[in-house]
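Please describe our next protein:
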Amino acid sequence: MIRFRTGDLGSPLEYSCQCGRKNPVFDLLGRCDDIIVIGGANITAHDFEEAIADFPELSSVFQIVGKTAGDGDAIELLVEFKEASAAVGPKKRDIETRLAVKLRERSYKLRAAVDQGWLGSLEVRTLPPGAIERVARTGKVIVIKDKRVK
């Protein structure tokens, strides 16, 4: 669908307007927003952007993945390093741990969801530059992916 956000889903409809317009019409089947309702909280990409910006080693390229974990929900945050050399070694694990703590400090929604057991886990994975899957046609990253079993 042209002029719609990456990930929007649509289906063409058979429709003829009484006024005679012949423009194609479609049914919007799903929106790609910068928000995911998970673990009882409305989580936005902005909740993650500010925390990631506190780490100069990390790029601004990230993806929030909603998953099913046991009987509940979980979030996996994928973040790319600016340089490939930083993506290995003990520093990698340290940044992942500190970023997970920073996310809970900055977002009362995430903190409450984890503390109250609504969100099973919040995992952070750091990756080399270019490792997060891009949309083949545009090269863009889908910021929020919902992979929960429905």
Remarks:
- Residues 33-146 form a domain with the GMP Synthetase; Chain A, domain 3 fold (CATH 3.30.300.30).
- The chain has a mean pLDDT of 84.
- Helices lie at 45-53, 90-106, 108-115.
- The first strand starts at residue 9 and ends at 13.
